[in-house]
């Protein structure tokens, strides 16, 4: 936001902003509601009676007027703290000083009128939600006025933006079109005219693939509202883009190579059409069931279904299903060679005498049995838990094999990059980004390369100093990468998780919550997915769900990697169980400044500040190296303090800030003053 003067922020949760850009609280919501109401009427002036009737409609007039006087006093106190003096109150009227008042809505409409790309990007930051969000219930009369006013504001904002999305403007190829349409979709992801504008724009640029993905995004958003795109939207893709028409004409003139018009797009991406089909091949798993027919116990069938469903949820295997009733042996083993992604055989066999199920996993490229286990479901808490154990063994074996640097297949390269994502050092990041850029160049529709790049950049911004800042992405660019990944494949859990983290940092907790919940729905058997999404839900304020999914994840791990104790601890911190959070974080690694800050915050909130200071003092040398490597995010402790706290719920955020402040003061302040 470029406003550098005191102002009233009315979009999203209303607040007064002081000269130093700190938010100023008013004692009651109705005090701020007065500002919101007066800022939207024609002359910024109303009678005291009108305001009292609007905000205290159920009270007798005298009582309402008395409550109004108290609210004005509260507002004046908040104004003084913010450095504002805009409310002019007389015996009969209340008025705002037009020369002094600044509001985020005024500024938003001003930059939308200008209509440049930078302005639309700023508009996205300004639009934090509906006008006076959270004020719907303060009085029935005010609610009625507010609902109408919101529609009026939305119409103003949409009209101010749509004038920059005229068909003639889009056809001209104006650079601001994409930013303007994305701003409207930020307001309302299902706003079809904005989707249409982007489809037109991408076609105009010769980017048919992006246009097709935009139509899919439109369909996905409208489906949640039980609607479908209008025929006008679908018809757009039946038209050839300008560049396609040109290439089609060249084809007519040079007919020796039909389909040639596809080639420029791949050459532009640096793809050799002779060596790449832009398709990523996953490991093959053929599933064979011996005597798992109708006579088999339900548990045996359920186990197979859970394992197959769990493998499918990873979106990392090509599964092939074949039933061999009455043939317990299945096909003869065949050695498969030349497939770098891997080819495997998964056999299920039910023993009718003891009711147990044999599960055998065979690596066909090596001609050997990886594991063969007899599953007695009586020994497991549930079919789901038993299935998760087998799924984990299969996934671990396959991905570990693919992480061999000698394997150069596309999915193997992704697995190699994924292994680097959990490291907290610039060398690993450079290697990961190199691999991901290679994948993006050769396989432009492989969605996880975009979410992977986003996660690396998020880690760099939050956890340690990046010496080379010329190539560092902004939060807006990171969010754009995540949105593109989700557009390409909304069913891939890591895409949804990365999108959730970008949304958290973009101050969109509701949308982040939705992304994390979707990640859990897509894969509820992967403990890494569960614990990561649970941590995100904790930050977004969905604490009960976060606890439930985090505990499930920890039960599913065969061996818990140390970093996940950090995530688990943060979930307990969100639920205000600081003692447990402090105990859990002890088992985590201190390779990141987040782990250090979380333990300090948990100890401080548990009433153990002296223990937190002793911890930092006892391990000062090693922790200084961690903090120095982090550079407290950007080298600016204040900026780091703002960025390190992901919690969206105000009370939890304030609690975590106590630990943030202590770490900041210990390593960058007067350490002696801390005693």
Secondary structure topology:
Blueprint: E1 7-9, E2 15-17, E3 23-24, H1 29-38, E4 45-47, H2 48-55, H3 61-82, E5 87-89, E6 93-96, H4 104-114, H5 117-126, H6 140-162, H7 167-171, H8 177-187, H9 192-204, H10 208-223, H11 231-236, H12 242-253, H13 263-268, E7 284-290, H14 298-313, E8 318-324, E9 343-350, E10 357-363, E11 368-375, H15 383-402, H16 410-421, H17 426-442, H18 448-463, H19 475-488, H20 493-505, H21 509-522, H22 527-540, H23 543-556, H24 563-574, H25 578-585, H26 593-605, H27 609-618, H28 620-630, H29 637-644, H30 650-668
Parallel strand pairs: 7-8, 7-9
Antiparallel strand pairs: 1-2, 2-3, 4-6, 5-6, 9-10, 10-11
The percentage helix is 55-70%
Report the uncertain regions. Answer: 240-277, 292-296, 323-338
Distance between the termini: 39 Å
β-sheet strand percentage: 5-15%
Report what the structure shows:
The structure is a single chain. With 675 residues, the chain is of the alpha+beta class. Helix content is 57%, strand content 8%. The protein has 4 domains: 1-162, Orthogonal Bundle (Arc Repressor Mutant, subunit A), CATH 1.10.10; 164-240; 284-402, Rossmann fold, CATH 3.40.50; 478-674, Alpha Horseshoe (Serine Threonine Protein Phosphatase 5, Tetratricopeptide repeat), CATH 1.25.40.10. The strands form 3 sheets. A 5-stranded mixed sheet has the order 8-7-9-10-11, covered by helices on one side. Strands 1-2-3 form a 3-stranded antiparallel sheet.
């Amino acid at each position: 936001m470029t406003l550098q003067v005191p102002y009233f922020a009315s979009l999203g949760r209303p607040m007064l902003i002081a000269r130093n850009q700190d938010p100023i609280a008013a004692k009651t919501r109705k005090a701020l509601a007065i500002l919101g109401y007066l800022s939207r009427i024609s002359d910024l002036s109303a009678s005291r009676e009108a305001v009292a009737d609007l905000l205290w409609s159920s009270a007798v007039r005298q009582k309402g007027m008395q409550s109004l006087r108290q609210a004005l006093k509260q507002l004046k106190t908040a104004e003084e703290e913010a450095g504002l003096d805009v409310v002019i109150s007389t015996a009969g009227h209340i008025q705002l000083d037009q020369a002094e008042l600044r509001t985020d809505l005024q500024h938003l409409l001003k930059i939308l009128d200008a209509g440049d790309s930078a302005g639309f990007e700023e508009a996205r930051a300004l639009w934090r939600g509906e006008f006076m969000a959270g004020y719907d219930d303060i009085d029935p009369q005010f609610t009625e006025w507010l609902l109408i006013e919101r529609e009026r504001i939305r119409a103003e904002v949409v009209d101010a933006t749509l004038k920059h999305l005229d068909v003639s403007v889009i056809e001209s190829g104006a650079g601001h079109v994409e930013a303007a349409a994305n701003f409207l979709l930020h307001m309302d992801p299902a706003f079809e005219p904005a989707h249409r504008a982007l489809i037109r724009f991408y076609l105009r640029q010769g980017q048919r693939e992006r246009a097709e993905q935009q139509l899919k995004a439109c369909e996905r958003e409208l489906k949640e509202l039980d609607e479908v795109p209008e025929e006008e939207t679908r018809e757009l893709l039946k038209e050839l883009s300008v560049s396609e028409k040109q290439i089609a004409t060249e084809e007519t003139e040079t007919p020796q190579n039909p389909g040639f018009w596809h080639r420029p797009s791949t050459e532009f991406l640096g793809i050799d059409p002779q060596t790449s089909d832009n398709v990523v091949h996953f490991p093959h798993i053929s599933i064979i069931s011996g005597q798992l027919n109708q006579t088999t116990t339900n548990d045996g069938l359920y186990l197979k279904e859970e394992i197959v469903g769990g493998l499918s949820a990873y979106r990392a295997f090509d599964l092939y299903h074949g039933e061999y009733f009455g043939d317990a042996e299945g096909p003869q083993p065949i050695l498969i060679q030349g497939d770098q992604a891997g080819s495997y055989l998964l056999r299920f066999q039910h023993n009718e005498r003891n009711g147990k199920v044999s599960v055998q996993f065979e690596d066909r490229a090596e001609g050997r049995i990886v594991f063969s286990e007899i599953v007695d479901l009586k020994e497991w808490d549930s079919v789901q838990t038993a299935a998760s154990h087998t799924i984990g063994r299969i996934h671990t074996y396959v991905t570990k094999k693919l992480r061999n640097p000698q394997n150069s297949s596309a999915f193997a390269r992704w697995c190699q990059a994924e292994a680097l994502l959990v490291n907290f050092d610039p060398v690993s990041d450079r290697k990961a980004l190199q691999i991901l850029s290679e994948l993006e160049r050769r396989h432009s529709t492989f969605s996880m390369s975009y979410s992977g790049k986003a996660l690396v950049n998020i880690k760099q911004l939050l956890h340690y100093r990046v010496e080379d800042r010329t190539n560092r992405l902004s939060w807006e660019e990171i969010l754009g990468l995540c949105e593109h990944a989700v557009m390409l494949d909304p069913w891939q859990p890591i895409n949804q998780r990365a999108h959730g983290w970008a949304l958290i940092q973009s101050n969109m907790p509701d949308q982040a919550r939705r992304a994390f919940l979707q990640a859990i729905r897509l894969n509820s058997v992967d403990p890494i997915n569960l614990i990561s999404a649970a941590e995100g839900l904790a930050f977004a304020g969905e604490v009960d769900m976060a606890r439930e999914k985090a505990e499930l994840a920890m039960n599913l791990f065969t061996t818990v990697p140390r970093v996940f104790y950090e995530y688990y601890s943060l979930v307990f911190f969100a639920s205000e169980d600081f003692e447990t959070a402090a105990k859990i974080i002890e088992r985590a690694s201190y390779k990141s400044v987040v782990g250090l800050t979380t333990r300090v915050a948990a100890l401080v909130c548990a009433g153990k500040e002296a223990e937190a200071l002793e911890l930092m003092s006892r391990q000062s040398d090693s922790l200084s190296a961690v903090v120095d490597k982090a550079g407290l995010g950007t080298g600016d402790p204040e900026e780091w303090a703002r960025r390190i706290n992901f919690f969206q719920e105000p009370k939890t955020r304030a609690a975590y800030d106590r630990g943030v402040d202590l770490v900041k003061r210990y390593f960058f302040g007067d350490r002696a003053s801390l005693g």
